Amino acid sequence: MMESPNQVQFVLNQSMSSAPGTAFNYNTGASHLLSAMIQKNIGINLKEYAKEKLFGPLGITNFQWAADKQGVSDGGTGLQLIPEDMAKIGYLYANNGLINGKQVIPAKWVSESTTMTNTNGFKYGYQWWGGLDYFYASGSYGQGIFVSPEKNLVVVMTSDISDTDPKIETNKLFSRIKSAAVSEQALPVNSEGNQQMKEQVRLASSSKMPTPQLPAIANEISGRTYMVKKNNAGLNFSAFTLNFSNKSDVAVFKKTLGAEIVDISVGLDNEYLETGNYKAKGYWDGDAFIINQHYVMPDSHTPYDSMIKFLFDEMEGKLEIEALSGIKSQKIVVDIISK
């Protein structure tokens, strides 16, 4: 569906697996149709409507929302929010659509949309999933907004779970958190504790460290172009160059993607550097140079994390790629040679 020239038409062209209203089967395509229906009815896409009616009143400005080729906001994927803003949406629903004295969403809609129907072992409302006594918004790989009206509790999770069922894992975790909330009263104000927490957040917000001395091999391999001998491992590049300078805390990873050459800046001071859709940082471990890379797909805004380990031995060596996904990783080793 995501690769089709017209996602809405693609969904409408699919045959029905069962009569409407007789079976529950969540799918992204049906959610995308909801977005298309809203856009057709109000004249603007869901992203612009949400900016005006929801994100604006909640003070949410830092977000991305992908759209299909017809400009229809993705209905079942493609929305990126920071955890703090996810929590605002959960808090809004925990308070029956009211925030700062303003009724952003009708209380009746909050109630209707979170009233669950049991179908095939699932509890589902209007784009909300249900637990025992709570409801939650479920995203890819375990991203979620969990709301317990009984406990007046909102929990936000960001994760990358792919080797097991993310819904099971995140619901287990939320249940533990919810059971730990034993008091119905807010904790008393702790000014000293709040100040200590703010200081810890400040210290943690900057990961920058002094740039270590480059090893001798860095100067030896810097500027050399390496070819991948046999690309049977599914690599998306056939050649690469690493550039280092003793006077800089930035390295450059230049890779050949077909006819395109991409230069990616790599932070050597433990901080990610951004180059287009890439963020990267790297470090030396003996004679091996390791790059941690974060990439966001331009169309779907889907994030991917990977670790590339370059092992050099007298200008020829091995290239080890470790694809990271949650707690599971896959290692691939290919031969490289300088030219």
From TrEMBL:
Gene3D superfamilies: DD-peptidase/beta-lactamase superfamily. Residues 8-164 form the Beta-lactamase-related domain. InterPro entries: Beta-lactam-related, Beta-lactam/transpept-like, Diverse_Enzym_Activities. It holds the Pfam family Beta-lactamase. PANTHER family: BETA-LACTAMASE-RELATED (PTHR43283), BETA-LACTAMASE-RELATED DOMAIN-CONTAINING PROTEIN (PTHR43283:SF7). This is Beta-lactamase family protein. It comes from Paenibacillus baimaensis. The lineage of its organism: Bacteria, Bacillati, Bacillota, Bacilli, Bacillales.
